[in-house]
Amino acid sequence: MLGPAIAWYLVVGSAIFAIGAAGVMLRRNPLIMLLSLELMLNGANLVLIAFARRHGSLDGQVFALAVMAVAAAEVVVGLGLVVAMARRKIEIDVDLLSRLRK
Amino acid sequence: MIRTPAIDWLTLAPSLALLAATIASLMAAVLVPERRRRNVSWFFCLAGYAGAFAAAAILFDRSPHSRGVIANALFRDRYGALAAMIVAGVGLLTTLVYYGERSTVDRVGERFALLASAGGGMILFAQSANLLTLFLGLEWLSISLYVLCALERERPEAIEAGFKYLIVGGFSSAILVFGAAFVYGATGTLNLAQIAGKAPSGDLFLITGLAMILVGFAFKASAAPFHTWTPDVYQGAATPVSGFMAGATKAVALLVALRVLSVSFSAQEHLWTSAAAALAVTSLVVGNLAALAQRDLKRMLAYSSISHAGFLLFAITAASSLGTRALLYYLIPYGAASVGVFALAALHERELGEPATLDNLAGFGWRRPLSGIALWIFMLSFAGFPLTGGFVGKVYLFAAAYRSGWTWLLIVGAVATLVSLGYYLAVVRAIYMRPEPGEKAAAKEEPPLLDRMLSTAVFAAVIVTVGSFFAVQPLIDLAKHAASQLPL
Questions:
Q1: Does a structural domain hold residue A1?
Q2: Which residue in A67, A78, A97 is closest to B160 by CB distance?
Q3: Fewer CB in a 10 Å sphere around the end CB: N or C, chain B?
Q4: Could you read off the pLDDT of A19-32 as tens digits, one per residue?
């Protein structure tokens, strides 16, 4: 196989996933949180493609394509909500999104 | 020439019926004049769910043996067909309740289109036979629900609920995909049936993948400690939608989890049964204790649904044919009671024009005697009293856990049931035994607006909740046929 060993792809993929997960949990800006969700999905994609390469099967690559399509759909809804929040002048800070707890 | 797989149309029929309903009601939102839009969109949604229910019933009848169809992407079996029937039944009742929902903005067409679409996704999810279709079904239902929650965007609470659901839902899906990637890495296949036995049972990648898939399902089934989104989303979404999420989303998440675990991970059974037991106990503790402290009815019901996730997880902990039967049976009265109770909450909200709380429910049982009795029945069914399906379901789940040797789990379950009486009976007490606050007396004078659709839905939910107690045997037989097709 050409290129670095598969372990490196897994390390990078997992690191991207972990950065994304930390971003969703720690950051408070809705846009950054959406971005972090994308990072998580792309980390998973990299792992899928690396494994597809190792097994010499296309399943993983098809899965990665499907994940990309779904991620795009999710972001469309997410950005739509961010725009709706901005229009309604709802605070763009998740800590302040606590109307529902009262 | 590309070889295409043979398409088994009957297996696809339930989700296709709902997909067609989605398109039809969405087109109606554009093409039909405004004053008839609500009726037309609503009709298509109702017809879609009725069609899906009929198709699933035919599928159940004609699938005596489980097999993979359409290039092994979907299972054609009775387990999936029964799950589809539960989803379609809950969806049918929700459509009736949703008809009269007032909204500040005119988005009646979209709301029925999204409701039908979410049901279609759930059915595909329940039938999925490989990790890719499983993910696509999950996202189909989730994205529909995100939009459905936030649809009334003039209400800040709705947007907040939608956004929270999107972030947490997206997070859990990403975890699930990452887990699926590792399972694929360990076994080289996405096919659920082929995953079993492809890798040594202690394989690190496989175990990591299993754990992450389990977490993804726990989020969707709102089992503690992955439940934090549930109260906010149930409270912020339109009330009939909350009922749909409690009755249908939780049902499919648990049913698919049980299918994936038993089909693909039978070699790791000792791991996932222990994990399910831990999730069950946390859900029971967190759900029950938090529910006791709630004054808002929808928030209380959200915590009650978390504690029910705990009870339903007994079936996965048991990992037996009896457990599967118990889960399938219990989901029928549970789904009906969920839709019914949220329907009554919606009725109360529409009358008062403010969220239902235990305080403003005072006198509800005297003002509306029939609805009061219905609410009473649903609460007793949730608590597991005899003469309701909830009783049989709970006994069945406990028996399954006991038979598999989880005696201590029974004790936790029994204590949890006792604690749950505290908040279920608090509702009954509120509607009958509290004096009506003075300023609300004015509302009493007005003739109560009668919503025929909503009353029909509540009536049907009562029939199912009580009927499932008296007609246990036929339902158990259905569940038995479905459960026998899982390798447990």
A1: no
A2: A97
A3: N
A4: 999 999 998 888 99
Inter-chain touch A63–B139, beta carbons under 8 Å: no
Contact B93, B460 (CB under 8 A): yes
Residue at A23 is within a domain: no
Model pLDDT, residue B358:
84
pTM, entire model:
0.93
Q: Which of B90, B175, B88, B92 lies closest to B124, judged by CA?
A: B88
Pairwise CA distance, residues B274 & B317, whole Å: 7
Q: What CATH number does residue A86 fall under? A: 1.10.287.3510
Pairing of strands B67-69, B74-76: antiparallel
User: Which of A51, A63, A85 is the closest to B159 by Cβ?
Assistant: A85
Question: Does A49 contact B at CB distance below 8 Å?
Answer: no
Amino acid at B10: L
Contact B143 A97 (CB under 8 A): no
Query: Is A18 a domain residue?
Result: no
Question: Is B188–A55 a contact, with Cβ atoms under 8 angstroms apart?
Answer: yes
What the block records as the tokens of B64 is 């005596």
Per-residue pLDDT tens over the stretch A41-95: 999 999 999 999 888 888 899 999 999 999 999 999 999 998 888 887 766 666 6
Q: What is the nearest CA distance from B433 to chain A, expressed in angstroms? A: 26
User: Quick one: pLDDT at residue B401?
Assistant: 93
Q: Which two tokens stand for residue B357?
A: 């709380």
Give the total number of structural domains in chain A: 1
Least Cα separation, residue A40 to chain B (angstroms): 6
Asked if the structure places residue A17 within a domain, the reply is no
Q: Answer yes or no: do A60 and B181 touch at CB < 8 A.
A: yes
